Amino acid sequence: MTTTDPLETFTLLPISLDPTSKSLSSPLLHLTTALSSLSSLQRALLSSPSQTPPPPSSTNPKRSAQISKMRDQGNTSLRKSPTAPQEAIQLYTYGLEMALTRPPWEPVQLVREECALLYGNRAQAYMAAQMWAEAAADAQCSVECKRQGNGKAWWRRGKALVEMGRWRDAVNWVDEGLETLEGGEKGEGGKEREELVQLRKEIERYLDEEKRREGR
Fold first, then answer.
1. How far apart are CA 55 and CA 207, in angstroms?
2. N- to C-terminal Cα distance for the chain?
3. Are 135 and 127 contacting, i.e. CB atoms less than 8 angstroms apart?
4. What letters, b where the CB count within 10 A reaches 16 and e where it falls short, cover 147-158?
5. Three-class secondary structure of residue 66 per DSSP
6. Which of 136, 151, 185, 214 is the most buried (most CB within 10 A)?
7. Beta strand pairing status for 16-17 and 24-25?
8. 7: three-class secondary structure by DSSP
9. Residue of 126, 79, 74 whose CA lies nearest to 95
10. d(C-alpha 89, C-alpha 84), whole Å
11. What are the angstrom distances between the C-alpha of 12 and each of 25, 30, 101?
């Protein structure tokens, strides 16, 4: 019986190198994502002074300052113009773009913390604009970045689902949030959990009324 050793098999893939940008590309869809990540890493390395990855704990303080600045300016804009949140949305978006494009050797936890705040803030701005679907999506992204100690994001998605009339999705989401935040009875965590409890009661009242209407 003849077997083929995969280590001895050579497959020529259609990959090309741009002579100007030095980026890799391929017409094969399944290679596009991998090559895009590889090209991004190459550009990040080339932009580094030594063209080598720094230690894992290394972060760019200028980028961190810019991200914080975008978030603070967005918060200020939203407070000044709560009925016209477009500027705040744009500022939070700029901050997210900077956070999500950090070089891959920078701490992942730092990126998650930054994105949890920015997605949560942008969700609030979308709610001010009554863009409920966008608010729900951003609040969920915030929770995915940080589940514990993020009661505001849990509440914002629950409230957005309520505003869209997705009551049963809302109650499932709020119940998951309450379970996640269990134990946060003191300080800010306790306050955020109480807001979720109140939202849960609002949903219960609506669902009870719906049952009564259906029973007539």
1. 54
2. 75
3. yes
4. eeebbbbbbbbb
5. helix
6. 136
7. antiparallel
8. helix
9. 74
10. 10
11. 14, 15, 31
pLDDT digits (tens, 9 = 90+) for 19-55: 877 777 888 877 887 788 777 777 777 776 666 666 6
Q: How far is CA 84 from the centre of its chain?
A: 23
Give the residues across from 85 on adjacent strands: none
Q: Which string of DSSP letters, residue by residue, matches 99-114?
A: HHTS-TTS-HHHHHHH
Hey, what amino acid is at 47? Answer: S
Judged by DSSP in three states, 118 sits in helix
The residue whose two tokens read 């007539």 is: 216
Let me know: does 86 contact 129? Beta carbons within 8 Å.
yes
Rounded Cα gap, residues 67 and 51, in angstroms: 24
Cβ count within 10 A of residue 14: 9
pLDDT higher at 14 or 204: 204
